[in-house]
Amino acid sequence: EKDEGGLASPMPLARRLGKEGLPEWGEHCIAYKELQREAEALVGVDGVNEENEAVFKFHLSYAIEQANDFYLQMEGQAKEAFASVSHAVSTVAQVHGDREAKSQRHSGGAGGGSSAAMTPASTDSSPTTSTDNLWGAGVPPLSHEEMDTLEMVFEGWKKWAHATRRHTLSDYINDAFMVQLEAGALKAALLDWLKLLMFIDHIRNFAMLNSVAALKLIERHTSEANAPSLREHLRGHEIFRMQGLCGLVLEMEGVATMLSACLSNEAPHSPPGVANTWSPHVCPFCSRTVQNAVIMPTGRTCCWLCSVDSSYSCILTCPLTAKPQDLRSLRAERVLSRFLQRYFPAAYRSGPGEVTGNSANMARDKQVQQRTAHGILSMFKAQADKKEKREAEQAARG
Ligand SMILES: [Zn+2]
């Protein structure tokens, strides 16, 4: 790894393939280490042995095809899941729309300031801010003891998330948020939608890491005679282009708009007209809206395909910072974070490590945090009560 001109060495690809994917997907990944070992053995004293290279080419093609088959299978599953999620959300939105219309008629039309006294005291009546209807009204202030406990809980939570660099569903849409949201079709649809987003993130990560692994093997270990055909072979596969997922992510946008409208009783947070450009970032290579975004170590996002096309020997020079970077250190941008940030900002902000510097949001953040706090504490209490009850029962029996 010394021939890369003093580049900071990224985490070994083999380790990322093993660590970042779902464990049960491991067997479908390109066997990077084994192929690398095989490739290194190709070069003898007389240069590259052509016969051995043909065998290597065959093995690599086979590995790419296996990974691609699995990718297509997962993409198919995601599309199936999307059909059912989208159906569930449309149904919920329909019911929600009907109820809205009804309550507006009851309150005498356009629901201004006077409507508060007229509408029934349900949880979705007259929200003051977008997510207020998700939380029970009249939360009592926290005691000092409760505050201390919480401080510890939050710190531990943030540390864990930072150390593992993992964002799970519960980090964002935390338990308190979910507990307060009435069980029913809307909650079920929201959970299914979030699960699908995470699934899409996993598939994108799988596709990106395996493509980089294949590129790396091709560009470093194959002769000029064989590399172009292998590169073409890789580019011919869906796993490399990820086109299907790109379309699916756009369709998820429509569902997000419906969900967030149901949850907030307001217009969605995105201004009209930008709904179809899910990423606000502009790619520094092609100057268009980023497609299948990857994050460079400099923190900038760009299109996945642009990053590959602009790389030379798997080294990419960021046009904005002029810094060279290894393709292996790219990360697939998480679709989940982007959607949550945009459609569920309160839930996103209460996730780990997301600190907003905007002072206008500070009061709101504090309020959300305190409500989250109450939710977490009541869960702890419920758990403790359950344990106590169980122990009492055991004692009574014994
Ligand atoms: Zn681009």
Automatic annotation (TrEMBL):
Residues 383-398 have a biased composition (Basic and acidic residues). This is SPX domain-containing protein. It comes from the Eukaryota. Residues 115-132 have a biased composition (Low complexity). InterPro entries: SPX_dom (IPR004331), Znf_RING/FYVE/PHD (IPR013083). Residues 11-235 form the SPX domain. PROSITE patterns: SPX. Residues 94-140, 379-398 are annotated as: Disordered.
